[in-house]
Amino acid sequence: MKFGYFDDEAREYVITEPKTPYPWINYLGNEEFFGLVSNTAGGYCFYKDAKFRRLTRYRFNNVPMDVGGRYYYIKDGDTVWNPGWKPTQTDLDKYECRHGLSYSKFIGEKDGVSSELTCFVPKGTNAEVHKLAIENVSDVQKSLKLFSFIEWCLWNGMSDMENFQRNLSCGEVEIEDSVIYHKTEYKERRDHFAFFSVNAPINGFDTDRENFIGLYNGFENPQVVEAGMPRNSVAHGWSPIASHYIEVDLAPGEKRELVFILGYIENAQEEKWESKGVINKTKAKAMIANFDTTEKVDAALAEIATDWKRLLGVYQVSTGDEKIDRMVNIWNPYQCMVTFNMSRSASFFESGIGRGMGFRDSNQDLIGFVHQVPERARQRIIDIASTQFEDGSAYHQYQPLTKRGNADIGGDFNDDPLWLILSVSAYIKETGDWSILDESVPYDNDASKATDLFGHLTRSFNFTVNNLGPHGLPLIGRADWNDCLNLNCFSSDPNESFQTTNNKMGRTAESLMIAGQFVLYGREYVELCKRRGVDTAEAEKQIDAMIEAVKNYGWDGDWFLRAYDYYGKPVGSKENEEAQIFIESQGFCTMAEIGKEEGLCEKALDSVAERLACEHGIVLNNPAFTKYVIEYGEISTYPAGYKENAGIFCHNNPWVIIGETKLGRGDKALDYWKRIAPAFREEKSELHKMEPYVYSQMIAGKDAFKPGEAKNSWLTGTAAWNWAAISQDILGIKPGYDGLIIDPCVPKDWNKYKVTREYRGAIYNITIKNPSGVCKGVSSLAVNGEPVQGNVVPIQAADSVNEVDVVLGGKS
Ligand code: BGC
Q1: How far is residue 34 from each of residues 54, 119, 326, 346, measured CA to CA in Å?
Q2: Cα Rg for the chain, rounded, in angstroms?
Q3: How far apart, in whole angstroms, are the C-alpha atoms of residue 689 and residue 329?
Q4: Separation of 571 CA from ligand 1 center, angstroms?
Q5: Atom of ligand 1 nearest to the CA of 358
C-alpha cells in the first residue's frame, strides 16, 4: 500500500494521505540553520546544534506522537483547519505534502479555501521562511481568521525538558510591530535571540502558551483559536510561544500571500542592546527585509533548486528502471547530504541531544557527499582528524558546535581510526587535491600537538599494528563498527551503559571485521605512501601478516569468523550455539578479497546467501540471540530480529553487495540492493512504515516478530554506503587517483545504460553497452572516439565535455 507517489520531474515525494504509518519527514537547510519537518508540519528547528541552540520545542515520545511544529490555524466560521492537517486533524477536501529537496510544501483545501504553505531555509540565512498562500476558491466572500503558532524552546534542548524549577521562571519576549522576539537568557550570558515575524500588519498576538492554548486544551483546539480572538498575552516565565493573529478577508478568487520568518540572530556583546532591556534588532530587521515580498521568497527558493540541480548533476544515470534512477539521481544523494549535515544527531529517532558527530560515522558519510561538496568535505576531514588522539585512537564523537571530542559518550572503538583513511583517500580520488595531506592538523584539538594530515593516517594505520591480539588479529577494544558487540564489557547492572562501562579492558578479544578493514584501508594507505615517496615495506609486511592471520585463524570452514571473545573463544562460528555467522566480517574480508584465489570469498558469500539473506535484506547474524550472553554485551540484549541482533542493519548490506561485485556476480549484487532500497519498498509502505524515499538504519529481520518493518530512517551510514555500492560498484563509475575508473558489475540481461558524471571540472557522458550479456569486465573503452587501454578514463581538460564509450565483454 502506498501513501503517495514520487514526482521525479519535480524531485518531490508527494504524500496524499496525512495518516502515514509514521511521520514522514524532511530536512530544511544545508548550511548552519536546520529544520526537521514532518508531513503534517510537525518538528523543530535549530542553529548548528540541536542540543545547544534549539529554537523551537519538540516533544519526542509524546502521545499522540508528532505534535508541535509550525502551525497555521485557519478559522472559517466555526471550522478550524490547518494546511498540513495537524494539529486540528480537520478532514480536508484536499491534502498534499510535497517533500522536495530542502523544502516542504503543504497544500490543504477546505470549504472553498485553499492554502499552500512552503517551508525552507534560504541560503546564507539562519531562518526558516514560511510562505503561506490562502486563496478563496469559492464563489462567496470569506472572512477568515488566521493564527500562526510556534512554541519556543529555552535554547538547551536537554535542560528545556527537565529543569522546570528554573525554566518556568525564565522566559522573556518582546513584541514590536508584527514581530515576536524570544529573548530568554539574553540579558546575561546569551548573545543570541530568536524571532517570528510576518510581513503584514497583525490584528493581535499571543506569546504565552497558557493564554493561547489554555491549560486544559491541546494544540488541536487552542482556546484563543476557538474563541476567534487573541489575548495579546505577554509571556513572563512559564512557556513562551509566538502567535500572530491576522484577519484575512478574501473576495471570490482572491488570494493573499504572507511571509513568516522564524529566525536566529547573534549580536556582539557590545551591540546587544538598543536601550536598557530592549534588544538590538538591527540584524533581525535586515533579515526580515530580505524576504519581505513573495518575489524575494520565490527567488530564494529558486536559488535552492538551482543548487540542487547542480549538485545532483554530478552523477545522473539512465538505466530505464525508474526506481533505480530516482534513487541514484535524486534521493540517495539527497539523504547523503542530510547525513553530512546531521551525522547522527537530529532526526525523529535521534533526539538531537544524545549524539554529536560520530568519528566513524562522519568518515563513512563522507563517501556519500564528497562528489557534491568537495570543499566542505575537506573541512570535515580536518575537523574530524583534529579530534584524533596522538596514539591514533579517537573520541567516538564530537560536538558540532565546539568541534571538540566528547568523552561522555565513550571511546575505545578500535575500528574508528581506520575510517579516516577511507575518507581521506575518497576525497583525494574525487578532487585530486593532494595538498590536504600536508595540512597541519592538531591532535585532540591541541594546536601544540600537530602533524600533517598524512601523519594522522600513519597513526591510524599504526594504531591497529600496535593493538594486535593473540592471533595477530586486531584487538576489538570496546567494540568495532558494531557498537553492540561489546566483548570487553561484561555488564550485569541494568543501570550501566554498554557504551561507557569499562569492566574488562583485556587484550584478548579480536575482530575479524577490523582485520578486513585493515587490509582494505591499509592497501589504500600504502598507495598514498607510494605516491608520496614514503617507504612501504613495513606497512606491506603488516598487511600480508594480517591476511595470513585471517586465513589461519579467521576462517570457520564456510565463512569468516566474526571475532574472538575475551576468553579467546570464536564468535560467529559453527561451534557457537547461536549467532554462528555474522555479516560484517563476510563483507569486509570479501571487499578486501582475502583468500579470493582459494575460493574463500565465494564460499563466504554463498553462506551469506544461504544463512543471512531474506526477502527484506541481509540480516546481521544467524541464528539470532535468544539469550543474554554477558561476554558479548548489548548485541544479545535486543529481541531476535531487531537492531544488531539479526536485524537487517542496512548499513552493512552494501559491504556484501560490494563483495559480490568483486566476484563479478552482478545479478546478486543488484538483487540485494533492491531488497533494501526504499523506492523498491514503496508498495509495501504499510509494512515498511518509514519514508519510501530514504534508507532506514534497520529493517526487522527474518527472526523478528514483524519481518520487513523498518525503523530509524534518515541518519544512517546506509545512505553513503549504498551510494558507493550502486554508483561505483554496480553501475561502475568510480573516481580513482588517475582518472575515472569504469568497472561495472551489472545483471547479465542489462544491455545498455548511460551515466553522466562531472569529475574534476569536466563532464563525461558515458555509454555502457553489454552486447554479450556479461556481468563484469570492460572489453573496450574509447574516449571521444579514441581507444583507451585498460578501464581508466584519463582526466580531461576542465570544462570539456567528453563522450565515453564502454563495451562490456570478458568473462560473465
Ligand atoms: C552507529 C554506528 C554503528 C552502528 C552499528 C549506529 O547506530 O551510529 O556508528 O556503527 O550503529 O552498531
Answers
A1: 10, 11, 25, 10
A2: 28
A3: 23
A4: 19
A5: 9
User: Considering 76, 412, 483, 703, which one is annotated as catalytic?
Assistant: 483
pLDDT value, residue 811: 46
In this structure, are residues 75 and 171 in contact, taking their beta carbons and an 8 Å threshold? Answer: no
Cβ < 6 Å from ligand 1: which residues?
344, 358, 360-361, 481-484, 644
Grid-cell match 481568521, residue found: 145
- By most ligand atoms within 8 Å of CB, the mutation choice from 365, 397, 483 for ligand 1 is 483
Kindly give the residue spans of alpha helices, DSSP state H, lying in 442-574. 453-465, 512-532, 537-553
What is the predicted pLDDT for the residue at 795? 98
Tell me, in angstroms, the distance from the centre of ligand 1 to residue 493's CA. Answer: 22
> 123: which 3 cell numbers?
541560503
The CA angle 533-538-543, to the nearest 5 degrees, is: 110
Q: What percent of the chain has pLDDT over 70?
A: 100
How close is the Cα of 398 to the center of ligand 1, in Å? 15
Look up the pTM and report it.
0.97
CA-proximal residue: ligand 1, atom 9 (nearest): 361
pLDDT of residue 355: 77
Ligand 1 atom nearest to 481, measured from its CA: 10
Residues 6+ apart with CB under 8 A from 149: 70, 71, 72, 73, 212, 219, 222, 241, 242, 243
pLDDT at site 408:
79
Ligand 1 midpoint to CA 488 (Å): 18
- Rounded Cα distance between 513 and 111, Å, is 60
Q: Round to whole Å and give the CA distance between 39 and 34.
A: 16
**Ligand 1, residues 339, 360, 361, 406: which to mutate, most atoms within 8 A of Cβ?**
361
Instruction: Identify whether 483 is a catalytic site residue.
Output: yes
The set of cell numbers assigned to 554 is 579467521
Cell of 154: 529555552
The number of the ligand 1 atom at minimal distance from the alpha carbon of 479 is: 12
pLDDT, residue 15, reads 99
- Vertex 340: Cα angle to 336 and 341 (nearest 5): 120
Q: From the CA of 481, how far away is ligand 1's center (Å)?
A: 6
Residue 108: the pLDDT is 98
The answer for 25, left when phi > 0, alpha when psi is -120 to 50, beta otherwise, is: beta
Nearest atom (ligand 1) to Cα of 361: 9
Tell me how far apart the alpha carbons of residues 396 and 414 are, in angstroms, rounded to a whole number: 10
359-369 helix and 332-342 helix, angle to the nearest 10 degrees: 150
Q: What is the mean pLDDT of each run of 10 residues along the chain (812 residues)?
A: 98 98 98 98 96 96 96 98 98 98 98 98 98 98 98 97 97 98 96 98 98 98 98 98 98 98 97 97 98 98 98 98 98 97 94 88 97 97 97 90 82 95 98 98 96 98 98 97 96 91 86 98 98 98 98 98 98 98 98 98 98 98 97 97 98 98 98 98 98 98 98 98 98 98 98 98 98 97 98 98 95 43
